[in-house]
Amino acid sequence: MTDNITVSRDGGIVTVVLDRPAKLNALTHAMWQALGDAIRTLSADDDIRCIVLRGAGEKAFSPGNDIAEFATARSNKAQAIEYGRAMHETAAALEACPHPLVAQIHGICVGGGLEIAALCDLRICGTGSRFGVPIKNLGLVMAYAEMAPLVRLVGRAVTLEILLEGRIMDASEALAKGLVTRVVADEDVAAQTLAAAQRIAEGAPLVARWHKKFARRLADTRPLTDAERDECFDCFDTEDFRKGYAAFLAKRKPAFKAR
Predict the structure, then answer these.
(1) Domains, the chain
(2) How far apart are CA 24 and CA 107, in angstroms?
(3) pLDDT tens for residues 154-213?
(4) What's the pTM?
(5) Alpha-carbon distance 96 to 35, whole Å?
(6) Which residue from 8, 92, 98 is spatially nearest to 54, judged by alpha carbons?
(7) What residues are paired with 108 via a beta bridge?
């Protein structure tokens, strides 16, 4: 355990936990830093196939930043800039992570917790989960680096609805607005998340990384270069492609090696 962030591994699947259950996994400055460090370390490990990100327990993913810390760590602009730097560096690490990220959401997913979940590739929650960003009630602004993932995920109009109204929405509305990928029974969240992670882990890891890279690139309005278009065919020269189609013809499961 490092600053309330725990990391465990089962084969190619890694689980990262916001581990502060007594405070519903409310985030501190140290937790933001530790989460960023963990994600950067995991990003460099080519043996990883999927990362599951969750909060400890089943009451909350995270309600966002711990307001009790504001008096000492975020009480003025200078402090807020430093605090924001940790948040934004971690957001950048999550955005740049080449491995598929799956958010396992139990209960409350609000504020900074929702910002983290929005940076994951899949978000699986329970019917009892709740979402929102009620920072207007604190007199706080969501910075560009924090807002950008939400705008990419649900668009400008829904982002503004979330921020301007500041209300908390249920799982069904979150699904309808595109905030989450899948809603399951509360008691099935862990099992359904693991099943999704296993399906991801069984696929060719280089393909998953390329798909993430291409999806990020398509969010950029610049025209694609010839080299970028050409990269789409690099998979045909990989060992995993040869293993994959040979296994398909032989009606057996492929053993991908990320080569």
Answers:
(1) 5-201 (3.90.226.10), 204-250 (no CATH)
(2) 9
(3) 999 999 999 999 999 999 999 999 999 999 999 999 999 999 999 999 999 999 999 999
(4) 0.94
(5) 14
(6) 8
(7) 60, 130
